[in-house]
Each structure stands twice: as structure tokens, then as C-alpha cells.
Design goal:
Blueprint (H helix, E strand, L loop, with lengths): L19 H6 L18 H23 L4 H5 L8 H12 L1 H16 L5 E2 L2 E2 H114 L7
Length: 244
């Protein structure tokens, strides 16, 4: 920790246990956010803890913000456990000219360092890489879920289309079956009518034949009776011949 009256680049108003949301909505102005009082007025241990906590939360949020191509895109994917209003203020901070200028200066200063910063047993670059990887995995997971949802919508649409086509096919098949059934019933009725007509014609012909035979029989009987009557008349009109 620096000695004397040198001012630390941190914000003593942010507590170590602060949540990501409170970092964006409370504390000093942008210019004074990274300014802390001298060690004469602040506890060295508490100041270091606050600095570490603030930088950790800020870096995590900035890494999450940096994954996206624009502020508008970042606003659509809030930082975990942060509401939309808080995340909007954080995005406004990261997109501000002052923050961009300080970020560029810090990036340039880090590039000039010959010694890699370390945090405990893990290097700063390693921690940064892990945070980037975590953010990338979260984004990939969100995009994968979006793709799954879109695929589910497509599958549902395909299923609905398949059901409509199947229903139309079933209706068409039923219509054809109904037409075939009606045709078959009509054909059966036609055959029945034809058979009935033939039967009636046959019965009529039989009756005519029976009537003709009966008439012939009666005519024959009448002819025989007439012949018998003529014979009897002839026998009566002929005189008997005497013998002796």
C-alpha cells in the first residue's frame, strides 16, 4: 500500500459486501468515483478491501458488457442478479466518454508493465481470461437456449402443418369412401330393381301362358261338346231300317 499522503485510486464509499447493483446506482460522481482519501483519514485494511471488492464487481460487469458489440445489445442482456434500471445506469457509465478515456489510459498503462499483476496464487491475466470465458459461456448458453426455442417453434409449426395435412388427407379419404359407398348402394339398388323387373315380367309371362293354355283347353272342350251334339242330332234324324 502506498505510504504518506498519496491518494489511492479507489472509492472508499463502496463497501466490500456491496452487490453489483449498488455499484451502479450509488456513490460519488464519475470523476470522483475512483478517488479515495489519504490513509490519514481511512483505515488501510478497510480501504484495500473496498478497492478489491469494487474492482472485482466493476471488472466483472465490464467484462460482461464488453462481450456485446454495442450498448443497445448489452442492454438486452442484463448482468446476473441486476434489474433493468440498474443495468441501464451501469451501461451508461461504461459508454460514457470519461470512462472510455480512463479505460484507454489504464489499458495503455497495463500494456507498458513488464511485471504481470497477480492476485493471490492466480495471475491477473488468468483471472481476466476466466471471467471472459465465463461470460462467453453464458452468452453461448443464452444463444443456445434461443436457438432451441426457435427450433421448438419451427418444430411446432411443422407438426401443426403435418396435422393439417393429415386431417385433409383423412377428410379426402372419407369423402372418397362415402362416394364409393353411395355408388355401391346405387348399383345394388339398380340390380335389385332390375331383378324385380325381370321377376315381374316372368310372372306376367307365366300368367299369360297359363291363361292361353286355359283358353285352349276350354276351346278344345267346347269343340268336343259341339261335335258330340252334332253326332247326337244326326243320330236322331236318321230313320231306322226294317229287316224281314
Amino acid at each position: 500500500m502506498p505510504a504518506g499522503g498519496k491518494r489511492l485510486r479507489c472509492d472508499s464509499s463502496v463497501r466490500a459486501e456491496s452487490s453489483p447493483g449498488t455499484l451502479a446506482v450509488s456513490g460519488p460522481s464519475l470523476r470522483d468515483r475512483n478517488e479515495l482519501p489519504s490513509p490519514d483519514t481511512a483505515s488501510p485494511v478497510g480501504t484495500q478491501s473496498s478497492c478489491a471488492s469494487y474492482r472485482t464487481h466493476r471488472n466483472r460487469m465490464f467484462q460482461h458488457y464488453s462481450v456485446f458489440n454495442s450498448k443497445e445489445e448489452a442492454l438486452e442482456h442484463p448482468y446476473p442478479e441486476m434489474n433493468k434500471e440498474e443495468w441501464t445506469r451501469v451501461c451508461d457509465l461504461f459508454a460514457s466518454e470519461e470512462f472510455q478515456r480512463r479505460s484507454a489510459i489504464n489499458k495503455e498503462n497495463r500494456a507498458k508493465l513488464k511485471i504481470v499483476h497477480t492476485s493471490g496464487a492466480r495471475s491477473f491475466q488468468r483471472t481476466r481470461a476466466l471471467l471472459l470465458e465465463e461470460a462467453r459461456l453464458q452468452i453461448e448458453e443464452m444463444r443456445a437456449r434461443q436457438l432451441e426455442y426457435e427450433a421448438l417453434l419451427v418444430k411446432r409449426s411443422d407438426m401443426e402443418q403435418t396435422m393439417r395435412e393429415h386431417l385433409q388427407m383423412m377428410e379426402e379419404q372419407q369423402r372418397k369412401k362415402d362416394e364409393e359407398l353411395m355408388q355401391m348402394m346405387a348399383e345394388q339398388q339398380r340390380k335389385k330393381d332390375e331383378e324385380h323387373r325381370k321377376m315381374m315380367e316372368e310372372q306376367q309371362r307365366t300368367l299369360v301362358e297359363q291363361q292361353e293354355r286355359r283358353m285352349q283347353l276350354m276351346a278344345e272342350q267346347m269343340r268336343e261338346q259341339l261335335v258330340e251334339q252334332i253326332r247326337q242330332l244326326q243320330s236322331r234324324s236318321t230313320p231306322k231300317r226294317k229287316f224281314g
